[in-house]
């Protein structure tokens, strides 16, 4: 295994004309196996947003939520393919941040990397709060903060150990999530076909009744589309983890290829089963969650508790993966001179322990703010992360446009994974991202998030550009 006690500090010049400086990236232990990568790719995008949050989208879009998830799923598949091409050609623990630095400049790597780190750390806090609420529901009287602290400490220790511990934990978390969805799809499919004992085939009654396929018109579809786009967040983790796998190039290529169609089946298939079996305007779809509402409708006993277990697993899995992703992104940024050097130190087993600790502490700080300042500071944090994932996707698309051309010219053998119909589908994906931004600006509920995220990105870009100018002056 490749290990270092400190990250590399120098960038290596590359390219036929010596014009490009390849950003240094930290070398960590290569302890992840292919099965770990495959399940991280699958489980990374299956979170509590799918199991619970999708109810709001169904309530807004009705049966047309299937179209919303299909459109957003297509966008996500294009982004995943682009990221797969970039990561297979140049595996790096900094993933898209490294690619953005190579393609656009150090300011872009700084902006995308620290924005993503901020997103993951705040998300860790949110997931911890969600998991604690489930535990206090089972054990009334126990303090929420104590459960969050327990989860934080557990996953901090998991990530401080060898990376294979993280990989093994995430493998089983993801396997349980995937297994739960597969069982749900099988039960739902039998019910739709009228083969489930005690049920009758619903036909198209729920798809065309109560206002039709698009009961709230285009406005409802737009709200459902926005909800579905952000439910897919998490696909980036596999490209970060690939750098610590036994065979980074082959690993990320296989993980991307196998995960894309499975994700489409899980998300779009789940939505299709739900709206076919349950009226879209059933209040339980929002109050209990669409999966619980569907299982209750089919008479499955203890459906709410079964789904509580699944949601808890999804939240804990996301906490584990986000602490990992945040620490690796921070360590990579620091290795490239984009942050405080002290946080980039690694242990003897190749784990960036200070980056893990810093990311965990920041995440727990967000949890404390939810108790101390719930109405102002914590709300500002939530609004700032609202559209970060879309900004990251734009950096990925622009980087792919630039680096694909460069790689084809300098070393085409690195293109193990190729973006389909380049550059047309990349431009189509970029157009889709811009369209989502415009739709967010159109909706009052998401417009504020856009403003706050824009402010954060502008501030990071200004700092990154100033650092870049300063570095050029010193040289």
From TrEMBL:
Membrane topology field: Multi-pass membrane protein
Domain of life where this protein originates: Bacteria
Keywords, ordered alphabetically: Amino-acid transport, Membrane, Transmembrane, Transmembrane helix, Transport
Cellular localization per UniProt: Membrane
Signal peptide: none
GO terms for biological process, alphabetical: amino acid transport; transmembrane transport
GO cellular component assignments: membrane
Location of the Amino acid permease/ SLC12A domain: 36-447
InterPro entries: AA-permease/SLC12A_dom (IPR004841), Amino_acid_permease_CS (IPR004840)
Start and end residues of each stretch annotated as Disordered: 1-26
Transmembrane segments: 37-59, 65-83, 104-125, 145-163, 175-197, 217-238, 259-278, 298-319, 354-372, 378-403, 424-442, 448-466
Family: Belongs to the amino acid-polyamine-organocation (APC) superfamily. Amino acid transporter (AAT) (TC 2.A.3.1) family.
Name of the protein: Amino acid permease
